[in-house]
Structures are given as structure tokens and as C-alpha cells.
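Dear colleague,

Following up on Tuesday's group meeting, I ran the structure prediction for the two-component complex that the binding team flagged. I've pasted the input sequences exactly as they went in, so you can double-check that nothing got truncated or mislabelled along the way. The C-alpha cells for the whole assembly follow below. Feel free to forward this to whoever is handling the docking comparison.

Inputs:
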Amino acid sequence: MTLDAKIPVGLIQEKWDKHRFNMKLVNPANKRKYTIIVVGTGLAGASAAASLGELGYNVQNFCIQDSPRRAHSIAAQGGINAAKNYPNDGDSVWRLFYDTVKGGDYRSREANVYRLAQVSNNIIDQCVAQGVPFAREYGGLLSNRSFGGAQVSRTFYARGQTGQQLLLGAYSSLSRQIKAKKVEMFTRYEMLDLVVIDGKARGIVTRNLITGKIESFAADAVLLATGGYGNVYYLSTNAVNSNATAVWRAHKRGAYFANPCFVQIHPTCIPVTGDHQSKLTLMSESLRNDGRVWVPKAKGDKRPANEIPEEERDYYLERRYPAFGNLVPRDIASRAAKQVCDEGRGVGKTGLAVYLDFADAIKRLGRKAIEEKYGNLFEMYERITDENPYNVPMRIFPAIHYTMGGLWVDYNLQSTVPGLFVLGEANFSDHGANRLGASALMQGLADGYFVAPYTVGNYIGSNKFEPVTTDHPAFKASEKEVDDLVKKLLAVNGTKTAHELNRELGLIMWEYVGMGRSEEGLKKALEEIPKLREEFWKSIKVAGTGETLNQNLEEAGRLADYLELAELIARDALNRRESCGGHFREESQTPEGEAKRDDENYSYVAAWEFKGTEEAPELHKESLTFEHVPLTQRSYK
Amino acid sequence: MNKTSERPNMHLHLKIWRQLNAAAPGKFVSYEKENVSPDMSFLEMLDELNEHLIKTGGDPVAFDSDCREGICGMCGLVINGQAHGPRRATTTCQLHMRSFNDGDTITIEPWRAKAFPVVRDLVVDRSAFDRIIQAGGYVSVNAGNAQDANALPISKYNSDLAMDAASCIGCGACVAACPNASASLFTSAKVSQLALLPQGLVERKERAINMVSQMDLEGFGDCSNYGECEAACPKEISISNIARMKREYVRAALTSA
């Protein structure tokens, strides 16, 4: 199968407008005859479910939590980008487009990114109209701040809780449609399979997490908005229930997985304290507006921060990247932190941390101003570490945060399975090899409010649908497979828990498929992962039964999928013998240690086709062309 | 520098509420938990207990959590009689074991309220909160209908007050802490947010009446100004929001046709 991204012809500025005109419409009276399944209730899922409900479709929306408001978008702190240019500092749709393509290290699709920049402004308008209380200036107008990888202030924010406020905005629109009976909400349901009939996605198989009952749902289109797969690494900033099961099962049913090795490691997270650690906590990138990153100049300098005189400190980001300073993109900041720690200049008990220091900002702006901007983040830091960042610098270290890779989608956000659309972090489309800060919220809401409602309509309008019910043999076969898998997990009755095995997988991934990747290490990972998978199926111990709420069973099922996906991540990383964005191959770097791309050989999207758990997947390439943002070695110096 | 990391690990006595499902009777079961690091979070301590239970053929304790950063609102335990435990403005997931001492007995219960039936052990059903929001906690604006975001200036003062109210994470601690199991703090936070912003004014009256009615319908109690909700709220939502909701309700009741 050749990959057709279906990018509309014409000038990049006109592609989306023309495409919207050319797409088929569905008559308002006919929309109610169609059922659309949306899996996930984060920014992308909730906004898509609400918008499709507003248009008149019958929507069935699923989430694993007790309420749609819990989705992990809620934890996004810093902000959301838009090209409003309210500060009059030179921003434009073109500049947001340019920054995002460059920030993604030229591994995203220009046409998608341009559309994202175009609709960014509608998102801010929409959210304000919903009553999202963005930060404002005394004159009553909206306030902006800066984020990494940009030299303009284009980030809108609601204190350190922007994701929460945007999600609650989308949740409020979703709630309105639930009340109007246009959306039927299924909470504590986990999607465990995609059902494909006559080559089209026609429904899902789920497990009711309270009763354990396996249930099927039929529809005319299926939208996955189930987030990223960072928990393959065990420790990440993801929520503990965030998982890859929905996308992985869809992958096994024919959806190609694109660029799985593009994983974002966020530079500013609170360091690990011990083996008991269940997750890592992010400290928002916005802190780098005012915090200065440093380590001691001397190796092994164990003096407390305030006893290290100014001239013995190395503000290494400001030194190495004078133009962007502390606001370099995430991949660059993370790698630089790893380098200074590898040199033995890391701080704290473990030596795996660097300082993020607010002393200068407090001197310059006063403690009150810092409190106003970051108060809740400082409190969170203190609660976790028992240290007061107003008095001592924060200690931070990189952690897995976001996955740029995901299911391959075309310009319409449709996967390689017709009728299966993938939105938000779950798809691969807009961030290339590195996502810029405050762009995840933008993409989730762009997909849900302003892209999928059109493109799903086009799919419905241009296809004939044979009536399908959940009695169809394909549903019955999927239900049996899912049920067998649950029984198989319960039957092993070994000696190791899902947490233990996931932690082991995480160590392999962090060591060999983390911040620095080499051919040797990746080959090692490709030996270790299948071994661990084999061990999993021999030694997993799952407590309880399948007929009740059983969180331990849920974890084990998700881990079984991670153990397959992890191998694909390593394989993709091995295939890509270049460094780009978050993917750093030791073999491919400049003399200064910066990532070195190989545009001649790797300017493509790697989309993998599933061929069987123990079979090698097949690689398909979608080549990327850059007509508007000239390919250059990225420089933030 | 790190005060607590020097503290030795602790031995704790846990008394945990166990209940198979909504219909089954529940009871406290005692567990001994050794080797608890002061740097652990409360939920990581329970994770370790569960690891032990799974390995020894026991039945792990069911409890809800997700983001473990204090923002999703999914976690919530009554710890020694206090919703989310002893620390001010802190969700259960952000509570760390340094708040406890070696040899302590810790009692752990689910939220207790008629409108929050127990699902299993420490997990409760809070869907009543969703239905309160569905009754009117929104501005009726379809995607694509909005004017330019800066077309309508909003005073920073009101916007900040709206944000204070909007910070509610919907965890239900206010209900668990209230002797009447009232959901007034939760409901008033949303009523307030939208009453303070011009976008919310068109539907202001119906919203106040419908959300308050739904709250009653779900079986939550009335507010009699105990103030326990505000004290337990991990986001420090102010009880003044309840006063605003009452004003909104009376205003709507007296002026609606």
C-alpha cells in the first residue's frame, strides 16, 4: 500500500479553505442517522465529541476514568500557542507555522502545520467564549508569555493550569451535548479492540471496568483521541492510567504506526527519589522565562547552591545558546542537562539534576510577581520535595513527557484504516521530531474543534454504509479474542507484578532508547525487550478475577501492549540513523555535540505496518518536502 | 538540605475500608506496612502495600488515582477522618509520608456520602457531579461561533475571581468533609465562575436554578455554613462562592418569569 497523505493542491495559505469547500457535506437532517464513536475525553476527544454532537451526529464517547473531566490534558500547565499577535511583537500565522516546522526539526508535514497555525486563533476565541478564564492585563485584555523555541510572546495561559481550564471548557461543551442527548457518555470503559468490516472501521470492543463485561459498539466512524504512549518508559509525566492500548490494538488491525521513536523528554521535571516512584512531575516550561539553569563549573562540587559563588557557576544554556538562552527547545535543553550530568557536574544526592534558579528574577521583579506567575508550581514543588524554591533553587532533570509519534494519519486525520480517525497526541502529524511548548493543547483542540468535524463529515458524505450491528461475526470474533486475552492474563499466576515488569521495561527503554541512542544500544534493546515479553507471559501475576473492578488486571493488559510497542520504538530508532529533534543518535552529531540531521536519506515519515507479534513489521515511507521552510541545520545560538 | 531524606523509614499500622461492591457490607481490615520512606507519596505507599498483597495471594486495595499531580481530581481518601489527609491545600496524591511518624496508625476510608455510592473499597461513584454540570455548567456556544477573544475586555479583578472558582478539580472532598454531605462548594464554584464573566450572563438565571435543583435531586444535603468544605478543599475554593450562588439563586427565583 502506498501512503497518500492527501494534501490538497494549491498555495499553502489556501489549501485548507479550498479543501473545506471541496469536501462533501452531510445534510443536517441526515446527520442524525449516523453514529460516531469517540474514544477519549481529553482536549481532542472532548472537543471532537462536543463538536460532532453540535453538528447533529449521534456520538458515543468513551473514557477509562470515572468522569470525562479527568483526562490527562488536565495536567498541562504552561499554556497554549496562537498567532494572535496581540503583543504586536511580529507574530503571524506564517511565523507560528515556521517556528513549529523548525522546532519539529523538519520532520512534520508542512500543510498540516500551516493549518494548525491558521486555526490557532479560532481556538482562543472559542475558549474565551466558553468562559475559560485566561490571564488578563489590568486593561481587561488577554495576557501572553513566551515559551521555548519562539522569540515572540504568543502563549495564552490560565495561571499554571491552562490544560485544566481548556479541558474544563471542552468538558462543559461536552456536558451540554450529553444533556441534549446528542452524546452518550460511557465512563470507566476501556477500548480493547477495533472492529474492521469490509475494510472500514465499524466499531469497538470494550471492557466495562466496573463489571468486567466485554461489550461491543457499532458505528459509522471511529475517532481515537487516546493520548500518547510515554508510559512505555514506566516513569514519565503521564498520568498513571494513560496507556497505549487503544492505538496499539488499532495498529494490529491495520493502522500504521508512524515515527514511534519520536519521544519528547522534557527538561524540567522533579528528579526521582527512589524505587517507590510511580510517576514524575513536570515543572512547567514557562518557568524558564524567569528561572536560570545552572550547574557548578567544577566536577563533584557538593556545596549547597547558595555557597557556590557566581563565578563558579556555569549557566550553560545561556553560555551555549546566547540567542535563546534558557528558552531553547526542549530536546536541546534536555540533552544539555544530560551532558553536564554525564560530566559529573550534576547536583543533588544522585548527581542527576541541575538547578533552576529564581534568585535573580525575585531580585528583579520581587517575590510577589513571581508568586503571581508561578505560585501554584512553586507550591507543588515544595509539597513533593520539601524544599522552598523561593529560598533554594529548584532541582530538575529530564523525563519522558510527550510522544510526537503515533498512528499515521493523512491530511484529513484519517489512518490507513478507512473510517478510523486519530486526533491529538495519539496521531503523529504536526510536531515532527520535537514538539514546542504550548503546542500540544493547540493541536488537540485544533483537531477536535476545527478539523475532524469537517473531515469526518466528508468521509460520511462520500461513503455508503451497509447497516452493521454488534451481532456481526467480526464483533463476535473480537469479543472472543479480548475475552481470551483477559483469561490468559489471569491464568499465568506467576511471581512478578505488572509494576515490577513495567519498571524493568522502563529501565531498558530509558537506558537504550532514551536521550542518547546508539546502534549498539538499540540492538541490545531489541534483544532485551522480546526476552522481557517472554518473561511477562511466564511470570506475570494478576490478582482477582475478570468480573469485577480489577485495576491490577487493567495494568497487566496495558503492559502486554507496551512490551510489543517498545520493540517497535527501538526498531524505528535503529532504522533512523540520523539525529533529529528528540531522537539523538550518537553516531550523528556535529563537532559541538548538536543533533545532525541527514535530510538526504531520512526526510521521511516512517510508517510501520503490523505483521504479527513475533514478525518484523514492514516499513512504509512518506517522503517529506519542504517548500516554504528551507531545510537548515537548526540553530538556537 | 533535604530535611526528610535523613529520616529513617517507618513502620505503620493501616486500617483500610474494604468493600466488594455497592451492595456488599464493608469493614475495616488491618495491615502492617513496613519500610515506608518519608519521601514516598501516600499513594505510592498504598502501591507498595498492593504489590505485597498481589505477591502473597491477597486482594489488592482498589483506589482511584490518575495524574498524581493534584490536578485531575481522581484521587480522594479520608485519612484519619480528614478528606485528603492532614495537609492544607493538598490532594491525597500530593500528600507525602513525611507528614506521618513511625508507629502511627492510619485509618483510610472512601468518601462517604449518599450521592457517592462505593464502587469497591476506596473507589466511589461521583457521576452526580457530572450531572450537576450537565444541568447548566456551560455557556451555550457551538464551535465556530466565537467573536475575537479580545473584543470583550474583562476586568482583571473579575477574571481572577472567576479563575479562583474555576480551579475546582471536582474531587468531592467538599462533600466528604461536610456533615450534611452538601455539594454546595462544588456547584457554587461553577455557578460563580460563569456569573463573574460576561460570557455567562445570558444563561445566568437558568443555570443557577437548574444546577441547584440537580444538586438536590442527586441527594446531596443542604449547606448550613459549617465551613468544613473550604477547609478540606485541596484548591482552597472559597466558601464565599456559596454565598454568591445563593444570591444568584434568589435573584433568579425572584426575577424569572
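Chain B has two domains: 4-119, 127-255.

Cheers,
M.
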